[in-house]
User: Fold this.
Amino acid sequence: IIVLVFFVFCFVHLTVGQSDDAFAEFDTDDAVIISDDDSDIEVEPQVDKRSQSRDASHGHEYDPGIADDLEHTQDDEDEDFEGVSASDFQGNTGSGGSGSGGSNPGSKDTGKKPELNIVNAPLNIRGRWDDYYLEIIGLIGVLVYALNFYTGRSINNRLANAWFEHHKALLSDNFVIVGDDGVSKEVSEGNLVKESENKFVLWCTGRAGCNGMKIEIKLLRRQDLISVISQLIKPQSDTITITVYLSPDDMDSVILAVVPKKGLKRLQQDIQDLSHFAIERKADKFGLPSQIGVLAEFGEVANDFLSNAVCKTIAENLDTFDSFHFSDYYTGYKLSQDNQTEAERPKPQKNMIFNYVVPGSGKRTKSSIMHTTEPLLRMTLHLMTKVNKFKLSKDNKAKAEKHRIQVEEEYLKQTHAQRQEAAQARRDEKKRLEKRKKYRLRLCVDTTA
Assistant:
């Protein structure tokens, strides 16, 4: 806001200054006096002493005959002064008035018209600084953008490193390798991979019951001046996303999501596994706050995972908790069936996704508050262990398998027409090529005959 006010102030100040001095260059020291009578015009020309001294030094004198010839020629060609004779003009100059002060002192005939003198007009060569106000404002904008870029980048780096340092000990106790860069051939640790100026990734592996865990620290775009201005209008927060990748034997048929209640319907419509399998459950039954909603395939799953300890942790850290989603049939968000082919369909995976928020709404986010997500990280590790031990009952297991078979059949029906159209297009293309080949053979036979 301060930068915008400064820009507006500079623009108004420069515009007013420029309008005041727009006619300053026309102000001269020459005195021009015009009376009411058209016949009385007094002009005080500035005599060029340098030209007079130069003419005198070269020995040139004023020739009345040449001056009269030039005067008569000019009067004949100039239509604006038609009707004015040379004698009238010459008579005014010779009357001894104040306007005859420009006569050449070196000429013998003082009653003749004085020679033409060159007036030394002031030259405005130097440009004023307010003539370049657009360039100055542009330069200030570039400097402000560059300063904001380096400042925002350093803040994001400091916040990401602070979060890693606060949680490094807890992660090291549960994983053998914390911070592998994934590039070097040898195993490395303690590397916080920087994917962009506001996104950092931490890989953890070496734990029984999971293939690995990826932690994404998604910070605000503090290095972008436009994003900083939009943050003032619509505040957002830094987020922490934890994705746990499980093997087929590490997780039973589980579909569970604990999300904000205001976005529950939208997520249920957009995410494929939630739209096919999950049903909304009553959150009051588990002691969760009223702004939290629950989606689960079976009540057995919700009762087992939403224990008193988990619900208490969510209620105590409501300002940092956003959502979590467990699925053994995760395929992401829905795609348009018209544009999606069978080959492009993602393969179902078994994942656990946790979304947490750093408090402060981006304005008061400091390195000292990055440890506030530690209780939720402990809850994440607890739920990872619980998923490995959980087993559905036989009846629910059979129902879960039946549901997944129905989803596969429904998808095959939706893509069947698309496959038929593709097969028909291939047949039409083959027939067209055969017709073209026969036409070319017939044309060759006709030409040879």
